[in-house]
UniProtKB/TrEMBL annotation:
Assigned keywords, A-Z: Membrane, Transmembrane, Transmembrane helix
Chain ranges passing through the membrane: 12-32
DUF6436 domain sequence ranges: 54-199
UniProt name for this protein: DUF6436 domain-containing protein
Short name of any one Pfam family annotated for the protein: DUF6436
InterPro entries registered for this protein in UniProt: DUF6436
Origin species: Vreelandella andesensis
Amino acid sequence: MGLSGRKKQIWLGALVGTWALGIAYVFWLFMFKDLRVFADEPESLAKFSQAVAEQVSKQVPVQNVPKRESTQLVIMWDPACSCSRFSEGHVNDIIDIYSPSGIEFIVATPSEEALALATSTFPEVTNAIAVEGISGISSPSAVIIDESGNVMYSGPFSDGALCNADGDSPVEIMLDEMNEKESVSPWLNISSFGCYCDWPR
C-alpha cells in the first residue's frame, strides 16, 4: 500500500472516530445530562410540597374530594423536561393499580398551556392543575397528601436513570402503607439519584 493509501486510511479512521465520539456525546446529552440527586435540602422540598398541597386545595373542586376522604397523589409533570418520558409508563401503571383503592390522582404542570397535554398523557387522572411561581423540587416526581391535607411523601417515583415499574418504588411503598392504615411517617425523599429537571418558576 502506498503512502497516499495509508493517509487515506488514517484520515478515514480519524473521521470514523470523530463521528463515534460525536454520537456518544449526543447520546450522553440526550440520556444522562440530567442525572443527579433529587434535591439539595429537605427544608426547600418541605416548603415546596406544602405549597403544592395548598394549591391543590385551592384548585381541585371540592365536590371531587368530599370531606377530603381520599388520599391524593399529585404527579409533578413538566413536558419540557427530557426525563418526563421515562416516567410516563410507570406513572400510568401506578394509576391503574391504585385508583380502585380510592387514591385520587392529580397531574400538575408548570403552566396552564400544558394541561391539555398532561391529561392526554395521563388520561385516568381526576384533575389537572397548574402549579406556578414556586421552586424547590425536581420533576418528574410525586407529592402524596393524606385525608387531612398533610404531605406524606414528596420525591421521585423511583431511582435510576429510567423510571422502573418494579412494584417496589418509594411511591408504591408509601401508598401500600397508607392503604393498610399503618402508622405512617412523612417521607421527604431527597437522596434518590436519577434523571430529574428543576421545576420551572
